[in-house]
Design brief:
Elements (H helix, E strand, L loop, with lengths): L55 E5 L4 E5 L4 E9 L1 H6 L22 H4 L4 E5 L9 H6 L6 E5 L8 H9 L4 E8 L6 E2 L4 E2 L3 E8 L4 E8 L10 E2 H8 L14
Antiparallel strand pairs: 1-2, 2-3, 3-6, 4-5, 6-9, 7-8, 9-10, 10-11
Length: 250
């Protein structure tokens, strides 16, 4: 995948490391680090097929799952399972504490200082606005769920997806990610990669339809017409919905 790809901002009010509801570092904590223990976030329980590479780690949270890259210090993608009920319940008070997830080795993760004075916001891949419980809200502020995002772009480019989910008849699987190029810069002492583009794949299980939003990570970027699932696979080299024959968005 020449490109890997993902969105949201909020000022950090506490620079100490903070790990809401999971102090232990392994599956005994109740927050496992293998997708086999949180298959509900993937269509048919099957995660995307990613070409093998070093420093990939699977992280399960209460409301989303992250495949994290220790090379880019960002997610490769974040997976969610949403429906109208979850969206209606997602009215939790917004958290304010960003934190480095202690389940990741120090040499493979972003730290709060990496974003300081970088000129980029900490862009949520699984949006805080989708979180249905206080614990899920707090966990969404993990830096494992963030990429360096243009401050102006990070604000509401994905709002139309939430409106679609409110009308959906069943579950909608959403996979969000950053896309990098060979020229993608890095920020901070830990060298967090800055994506050139962001994508958000939407799969409506009831209608068996899939499409993707593809946006450049820059100031002034506007919402454009979605691209097909097949086009997303072509651009990223990743089969996000393995084994599924999905219909095109009309």
């Amino acid at each position: 995948m020449v490109a890997h790809a993902a969105p949201d901002r909020h000022p950090c009010t506490d620079r100490r490391q903070y790990s809401p509801s999971f102090e232990a570092l392994d599956s005994a904590s109740g927050h496992p680090t293998r997708f086999a223990q949180c298959p509900q976030f993937f269509a048919d329980g099957k995660p995307p097929v990613i070409p093998a590479r070093p420093k990939l780690r699977e992280l399960c949270y209460e409301a989303f799952a992250v495949l994290h890259s220790g090379e880019t210090k960002t997610p490769v993608y974040v997976a969610q399972r949403l429906n109208s009920r979850i969206i209606e319940d997602a009215d939790e008070k917004r958290a304010t504490k960003f934190f480095a997830d202690a389940r990741l080795p120090r040499g493979e993760r972003a730290e709060l200082e990496d974003y300081k004075r970088s000129g980029y916001s900490r862009g949520h891949m699984a949006p805080a606005g989708d979180m249905p419980t206080p614990t899920a809200m707090a966990q969404s502020f993990s830096l494992a769920n963030m990429v360096p995002q243009d401050i102006q772009h990070n604000g509401g480019a994905w709002a139309k997806i939430r409106r679609y989910i409110r009308r959906a008849k069943g579950d909608v699987f959403v996979i969000t990610g950053p896309v990098f190029t060979q020229e993608s810069p890095r920020i901070g002492d830990n060298g967090v990669r800055v994506p050139s583009h962001l994508f958000k794949l939407v799969y409506d299980q009831h209608d068996n339809r899939a499409w993707a939003h593809w946006q450049e990570n820059r100031e002034g970027e506007r919402v454009s017409r979605p691209i097909s699932y097949q086009e997303l696979v072509k651009r990223t080299g990743v089969e996000f919905l393995p084994g599924l024959a999905v219909s095109q968005l009309n």
